[in-house]
Amino acid sequence: MNADNWSEQVLEKSGIEAVFLTNDFDDSLQGFDTNVYIPCLRTDDLVFHLAKQDVRDRLEVSTSTSLESITDLRQAVATLFTHFKTNNAKACAISLPPSFSPSTISDGRAKNALQQILTKGTEADASHIEAMARWMFWTITQQCETHQLPFDLMIGVNRRVYPTGVFQGQDLYDSRVSLIQYQEVFNAFPTVTFPISVLASVTNQELASYAWIFPNVVTHGHWWYSNTPTFIEHDTAARLEAVPQTKQIGYYSDMYKLEFALPKFRMYKRILSKVLAERYVIDRNWSEQRAIEFGSIILRGNVETVFDI
Amino acid sequence: MNADNWSEQVLEKSGIEAVFLTNDFDDSLQGFDTNVYIPCLRTDDLVFHLAKQDVRDRLEVSTSTSLESITDLRQAVATLFTHFKTNNAKACAISLPPSFSPSTISDGRAKNALQQILTKGTEADASHIEAMARWMFWTITQQCETHQLPFDLMIGVNRRVYPTGVFQGQDLYDSRVSLIQYQEVFNAFPTVTFPISVLASVTNQELASYAWIFPNVVTHGHWWYSNTPTFIEHDTAARLEAVPQTKQIGYYSDMYKLEFALPKFRMYKRILSKVLAERYVIDRNWSEQRAIEFGSIILRGNVETVFDI
Amino acid sequence: MNADNWSEQVLEKSGIEAVFLTNDFDDSLQGFDTNVYIPCLRTDDLVFHLAKQDVRDRLEVSTSTSLESITDLRQAVATLFTHFKTNNAKACAISLPPSFSPSTISDGRAKNALQQILTKGTEADASHIEAMARWMFWTITQQCETHQLPFDLMIGVNRRVYPTGVFQGQDLYDSRVSLIQYQEVFNAFPTVTFPISVLASVTNQELASYAWIFPNVVTHGHWWYSNTPTFIEHDTAARLEAVPQTKQIGYYSDMYKLEFALPKFRMYKRILSKVLAERYVIDRNWSEQRAIEFGSIILRGNVETVFDI
User: Fold this and answer.
1) How many other CB atoms sit within 10 Å of the CB of residue A71?
2) Residue B21 has pLDDT above 70, yes or no
3) Contacts with B230 from chain C: Cβ below 8 Å
4) Domain spanning C150-309: which superfamily?
5) Is residue C174 within 8 Å of residue C159, measured between CB atoms?
6) For domain A6-307, which architecture applies?
7) Topology of C15-91+99-148 in CATH?
8) Which residues of C touch A172 (CB under 8 A)?
9) A298 closest CA partner among A274, A272, A280
10) Which residue of B has its CA nearest to A180?
11) Å between A74 CA and nearest CA of chain C
């Protein structure tokens, strides 16, 4: 594991050609091969934590901007996108709490919110922080439109529900969330592709239905608490039947170590094979070849078309 | 397909003896054999679109009524029911948004609402339109009681979520709906049978439980986004175990063309057979004969008893 | 069945060593062997019906207290716990409506609420009754902490939805409930174990996830409307994968007659065996021995460790 080329060994052994990262907005994106480690702009901090002095400082430094107005803020976001796009970024991403419901916020309203946030930081009224979050989400989506980047939405997590838990063992969820909350943004940005992950299996049918109806909604993997075999199997079976086959990205590993990809993808591939064998080859009398081709586009082909790689 | 007797050929080939229609309230119900094409009064327009001038005009014309008061309105609805009942109607039906929660509305409150609607049309306050919808729903249910007609409730659809979609490709849903919203109406009309369809599989357990407890609630098919094999299988398995066998209508085709019935019913019958084979013949050691009899009552027998045909 | 030792015969035939009761708070707990019929303090009346004169009378009599202040009330609850604990009680239990969300209530607020309740009984404002319920729930949890008793939460039932139904045929549910409502109490009482049952299968994933993250949350059986084979199978499969194996109590019978335990447990054991055979021995290539050991700890071992018997 200490071998100089350990990571290359892991990639080769795992059959991985490239890895999609999620990078902090102020990541320099230097020092690695962006064709193998493909950048993605992670925007949680911008949308939900702009009231923190630290986040605003990082944004000012990384974009060489002084954040005094909505115009400054919009320019800073544009600068980030240019930086990421220049460095081969293939997506923008964010995780969202169940309560979030994006909508347009006028620049006037956003101006008030920013003023409060610049003055009071995290002590600003919740309504201002919420307005700022919505404005920022919308602004980021506009940049996705401009730069033709898919916007990965990971919907449904409540942070720090068990605050004394270990790192990444603190977050849970309220499963009472609906994709109807995203109706306005799906309609407003028909050219932006939204690969969507949902935290709870009870939201999977909505996801499949919205991907069936909205041309720009794509189902995206099996996230976190839904990334266990029983839920993957149930959710996969439902998606295969209801979602156009070009609009399903079967799986991503959500790995924190390079070594995780192999067992995680093997788990998924075993389940995908089970569903295809039982429900297509046996129940529908498909040929094995046809089932394998269907599986391949879900597992790999759609990644290439959706993320343009 | 252009043969004079094409529709008869399709019916015969499909093994269909009769088709349940859903008819606009101002349908003349003339020109077809109502013993083969059985009328059903579809009431969405009356409940949710009475604020539209066009709907009120159609109601006035079809019932020869001038709609100036609550009394006029109640009389018009009664006239529609008499017209439908005289023409062999076997049910009343409506699709309902997840937000709808029926309750009694006093005639006084309804009078105010009607006044606003007659004056302002669709510009009337949302509270008046909502009050009118509840009053109308209740009034229609009273007519179902009077005329001993089942009231088919199709619960959970949001209309025009993707308004630029093709016809019938615009509607989606917020799955956060509960049958508790119908508690008052189920209790108030014990002699009205409510065959209920739910749009999302996550509501299926509630449906099974309510049909278990309320004598007048019947499970009714697998609707729209839940009408795909994986959801049908899961929902059917749950209903067969929890709902009295005389209170389950297994399937309806929801067809828009006569040719759809055959493949749709074949899909359902294959799934019903699978569930009966795996969970009753194998798991419970039932005889095949017993399983077939159970399936037959779900598939056909209950249609006859519930809709009195 | 009239034999003197009928109950002993049933216990022996069923392989039952002991039965967990749920006892009214004013149960004398005399006249039976508390090592075979293990007491459990059922607290629904205290939390949700203290506004009823009858409940307060029973509490005063059973604890020899005059309920005039919050201090009296707290003392009465403490007396009940001592009585139950002295008589071998191994748990406290309560069933909860979907709307309930426990939180701390100051003694000052509780004092106002109690004053209103003592004066107006069930006619007291809903806000006072709600405040009293929250205060009482919290006070009971504190007693669980003091006496090291697990607090069984049965979450999600709406009482008397169909009020003209037969006894125990009146209650239903609104499945729109989330364990996020219990976040504060789980965090505030880290040493109290909460064995949790949920009424609807759609809440099962939340339950599994919360038991995964919170050290003091344990999954507890398959309750009522989720106690049918299809839901048990789906929910069991999900729990086995996601919840630590020491934090799952597979089943309890919820029986009202001693004779119910045998068939109910047989049903569960058959389903547990099916899931272990299909998903562990076949899918994961486990040895049968390993699967049986896993099943045994779920079915029996954890009952002993969680309830300290």
Assistant:
1) 10
2) yes
3) none
4) Metal-dependent hydrolases (3.20.20.140)
5) no
6) Alpha-Beta Barrel (3.20)
7) TIM Barrel (3.20.20)
8) 179-180, 183, 206, 209-210, 213
9) A272
10) B174
11) 35
